[in-house]
Design a protein that fits this description.
The chain is 53% helix and 7% strand. It has nine helices and four strands; from the N terminus they run E-H-H-E-H-H-H-H-H-H-E-E-H. The chain has a two-stranded antiparallel ribbon. It starts with 15 loop residues before the first strand and ends with a helix.
Length: 319
């Protein structure tokens, strides 16, 4: 039992303007058809980076045709974990009764009764959910406080340093993370060239080139690792999952072009999200943040194909 005389203030969530695509209203069959047509007609160019840009632009053109980017004002609504099917059906009854409440006195009375039942059910489910949650974490005060903080909306957004100029804040983070990488590299021990053996231990085990990737192998990689996309990827994750089978041929061509040329130019650009290492740390100090990178789906496919070939080479040569 938590007792306190302190008055808690729930953070007021301000509306936010975002740029998004309305994918729910698109004709999925027509969208899939256009994606398949664009993919089947897509050809690789001489440079890998140009091939990637061309393919990305083609996919974005299809998306812009069916679901163009539009600004949207959103309000933040807290997720209700206790919201189950029973309560959802009860809300449907309430909305149905609300539509007919002005017909006569009977329908008005019926609406009030259903509304009262809905309120009682909501309160009961809330009590049951949080009672079970607190009982489950009994003795773990950190978990209990996490529940309280979450419900009081104390962690509504990712905490960032107080910088009104967002481009400048991005620049500050970029400079800090780059300087950190440089310091790490400078701290690595140097190797004297005279200490390096001139004769290789395995004279016949050079890995000079990568074996091309097959479509079946690519399907297996995707099956094992799943599909995760970055915000700047060529297709949104939900669309890519629906059309992945038809995109396998062009993806295989791009992967093999990367393997044959040794290039991943244009794909090692990540969306970086600075994340506070611990909520207790000073959010104004950049050293208390770690960079979370969202890499492109195609780049991760290439990395896994390379890893598979490297492991095969090491295993076959007992390395």
């Amino acid at each position: 039992l938590l007792c306190s005389t302190k008055t808690f203030h729930v953070a007021q969530k301000k509306p936010k303007v975002i740029v998004t695509r309305d994918l729910k209203r698109v004709d999925k069959n027509q969208l899939s058809s256009d994606i398949m047509n664009a993919a089947s007609n897509s050809k690789t160019l001489s440079q890998f980076s140009d091939s990637c840009k061309k393919f990305f632009d083609e996919m974005n053109s299809v998306l812009d045709l069916h679901a163009p980017l539009t600004p949207k004002t959103i309000s933040f609504v807290a997720h209700a974990p206790w919201f189950d099917t029973e309560y959802k059906n009860q809300r449907k009854l309430r909305r149905k009764a609300e539509k007919h409440k002005n017909k006569d006195e009977y329908h008005m009375t019926l609406f009030k009764e259903i509304r009262a039942e809905t309120t009682i059910m909501a309160n009961l489910k809330k009590r049951q959910y949080y009672s079970n949650l607190l009982e489950k974490n009994k003795g773990n005060m950190r978990a209990v406080y996490d529940v309280v903080n979450r419900e009081l909306d104390r962690k509504q957004e990712n905490t960032l340093p107080p910088e009104p100029d967002l481009p400048q804040l991005s620049k500050n983070f970029n400079e800090y993370f780059n300087e950190k990488i440089i310091k790490i590299r400078e701290g690595l021990p140097s190797i004297n060239s005279s200490q390096i053996e001139t004769e290789p231990v395995y004279s016949d085990s050079y890995l000079n080139e990568f074996v091309p990737c097959t479509e079946d192998e690519l399907k297996e990689i995707i099956k094992e690792t799943g599909i995760k996309c970055a915000p700047t990827d060529f297709l949104p994750e939900i669309i890519l999952k629906d059309n992945i089978d038809g995109l396998i041929p062009i993806l295989c061509q791009l992967v093999n072009q990367s393997l044959s040329t040794g290039s991943i130019e244009g794909l090692k650009i990540a969306d970086i999200i600075p994340t506070l290492k611990d909520i207790k740390l000073d959010h104004e100090d950049l050293k208390n943040y770690r960079p979370i990178s969202n890499l492109s789906f195609l780049g991760k496919l290439i990395e896994r194909a390379v890893l598979s070939r490297l492991n095969d080479h090491l295993d076959s040569n007992n390395m």
